């Protein structure tokens, strides 16, 4: 009760008389001066215990009632958790406003879905292992980073507000998360003008996830999160103008029984001859922002002063045809897509001869010198990522010569698809890639004609 006068009557400190109430299933004792709960040892049928707002310093010092499900010990004086394996039926545990400095002893609480430890003195998240938690509140603690959550696959609501968290990394893979509170942390103290790629990706991922979950939506089975059968998706990445766009289209043409081109949205204007809805959907910044806020986007990046993003719809339109989505992206897009539940194959197309690469850029006649310099300088970023994060890319293909690159690429794709490769030979009467190179992207192969 919040009623001040009521408190005057809430002065119970000795509750030993309850020892004879052996059949109690529900016991509510909030707002008293209780220090000793040992009488609970005599209540084997207890299901619900509320001893909030008391003076208890002992944590679960009573014989475990076999079916004890909900316990509220908030606003007490507890400092140390202990092994609760004897209390395995616990589903809700409220320990707010105590003085715990560590989370421990919960490993065997295999039914625990709600855990609240707001306003304690916890400095790191630990001991939560693979608990089936759907709700976790650690508001008002001393956390500096997000860790130890990676196995909480059921987590839906997470409150980490009022801590000292500086970075959002550690939130990856929480696919069911629908509510996240990070109010009053120090996240803004990371360099917002040039935050690390992973921070941007994590932040964007959470934004998209949260907005998406706020929308009523139909999910296509084929794109649903599943660890057994991840939705097949193919991503070609590499610096601008490395040929990934053309190779993506060419792949989608040749393997049109398997792949279709995933059409991203962008706020840049169409280049001469570019048609809306073919390479991109061209939209205004305003529309793009509203798409973010209506949860349409799986992933976004800023590149060259414009926004680019892949929508759930783009993937689902392809999935509806029974095909896998094939897209091309800058590295930041890959980092961000890796945070989603999609598990694409990532193929890096890397220029190894800078002069040739510059030649490709110049031949397009689209870029300023500054844009070309920027593109060239990013080759190193890709190469470094590949060196420093083994396995980050599933395949790495040099793209100095697009024809060679395509041969290697289609071979890799055939391996993914478990298609048997016939011996390439003079008598091979299968349609050669050149025959399929019709239409808009014919310029890719121009040196062959
Ligand atoms: N959703 C996305 N996420 C990340 N990167 C993207 C996305 N959509 C497009 N991109 C990438 O953004 C870069 C700029 O694309 P844009 O089409 O404006 O330039 P471009 O000069 O034609 O480059 P390219 O020929 O490599 O596509 C390209 O590298 C492209 O692959």
TrEMBL record:
<dbReference type="GO" id="GO:0005829">
    <property type="term" value="C:cytosol"/>
</dbReference>
<dbReference type="GO" id="GO:0004385">
    <property type="term" value="F:GMP kinase activity"/>
</dbReference>
<dbReference type="InterPro" id="IPR001611">
    <property type="entry name" value="Leu-rich_rpt"/>
</dbReference>
<dbReference type="InterPro" id="IPR027417">
    <property type="entry name" value="P-loop_NTPase"/>
</dbReference>
<feature type="domain" description="Guanylate kinase-like">
    <location>
        <begin position="231"/>
        <end position="414"/>
    </location>
</feature>
<dbReference type="InterPro" id="IPR032675">
    <property type="entry name" value="LRR_dom_sf"/>
</dbReference>
<keyword id="KW-0433">Leucine-rich repeat</keyword>
<dbReference type="InterPro" id="IPR025875">
    <property type="entry name" value="Leu-rich_rpt_4"/>
</dbReference>
<keyword id="KW-0808">Transferase</keyword>
<dbReference type="Pfam" id="PF00625">
    <property type="entry name" value="Guanylate_kin"/>
</dbReference>
<dbReference type="InterPro" id="IPR008145">
    <property type="entry name" value="GK/Ca_channel_bsu"/>
</dbReference>
<dbReference type="InterPro" id="IPR008144">
    <property type="entry name" value="Guanylate_kin-like_dom"/>
</dbReference>
<keyword id="KW-0677">Repeat</keyword>
<dbReference type="Pfam" id="PF12799">
    <property type="entry name" value="LRR_4"/>
</dbReference>
<protein>
    <submittedName>
        <fullName>Leucine rich repeats and guanylate kinase domain containing</fullName>
    </submittedName>
</protein>
């Amino acid at each position: 009760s919040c009623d001040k006068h009521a408190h005057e009557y809430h002065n119970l400190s000795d509750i030993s008389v309850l020892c004879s109430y052996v059949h109690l299933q529900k016991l509510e004792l909030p707002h008293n001066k209780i220090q000793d709960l040992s009488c609970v040892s005599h209540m084997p049928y207890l299901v619900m215990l509320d001893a909030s707002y008391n003076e208890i310093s002992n944590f679960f010092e009573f014989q475990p009632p076999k079916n004890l499900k909900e316990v509220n010990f908030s606003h007490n004086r507890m400092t140390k958790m202990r092994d609760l394996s004897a209390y395995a039926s616990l589903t809700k545990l409220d320990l707010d406003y105590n003085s715990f400095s560590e989370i421990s002893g919960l490993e065997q609480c295999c039914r625990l879905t709600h855990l609240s430890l707001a306003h304690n003195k916890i400095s790191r998240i630990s001991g939560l292992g693979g608990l089936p938690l759907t709700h976790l509140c650690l508001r008002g603690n001393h956390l500096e980073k997000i860790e130890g959550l990676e196995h909480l696959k059921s987590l839906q609501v997470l409150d980490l507000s009022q801590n000292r968290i500086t970075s959002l990394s550690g939130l990856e893979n929480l696919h069911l998360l629908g509510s996240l509170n990070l109010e009053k942390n120090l996240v803004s103290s990371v360099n917002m003008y040039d935050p690390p790629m992973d921070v941007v990706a994590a932040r964007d991922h959470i934004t998209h996830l949260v907005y998406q979950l706020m929308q009523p939506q139909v999910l296509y089975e084929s794109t649903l999160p599943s660890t057994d059968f991840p939705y097949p998706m193919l991503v070609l990445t590499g610096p601008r103008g490395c040929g990934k766009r053309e190779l993506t289209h060419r792949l989608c043409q040749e393997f049109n029984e398997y792949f279709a081109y995933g059409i991203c949205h962008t706020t840049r204007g169409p280049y001469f001859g570019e048609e809306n809805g073919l390479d991109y959907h061209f939209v205004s910044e305003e529309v793009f922002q509203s798409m973010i806020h209506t949860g349409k986007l799986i992933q976004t990046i800023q590149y060259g002063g414009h926004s680019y993003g892949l929508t759930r719809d783009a993937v689902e339109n392809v999935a509806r045809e029974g095909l896998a989505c094939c897209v091309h992206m800058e590295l930041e897009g890959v980092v961000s897509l890796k945070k989603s539940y999609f598990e694409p194959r990532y193929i890096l197309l890397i220029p190894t001869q800078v002069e040739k690469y510059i030649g490709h850029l110049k031949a397009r006649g689209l870029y300023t010198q500054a844009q070309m310099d920027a593109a060239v300088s990013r080759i190193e970023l890709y190469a470094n990522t590949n060196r420093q994060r083994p396995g980050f890319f599933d395949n790495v293909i040099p793209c100095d010569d697009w024809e060679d690159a395509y041969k290697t690429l289609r071979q890799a794709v055939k391996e993914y698809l478990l298609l048997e490769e016939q011996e390439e030979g003079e008598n091979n009467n299968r349609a050669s890639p050149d025959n399929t190179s019709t239409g808009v992207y014919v310029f890719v192969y121009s040196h062959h004609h």
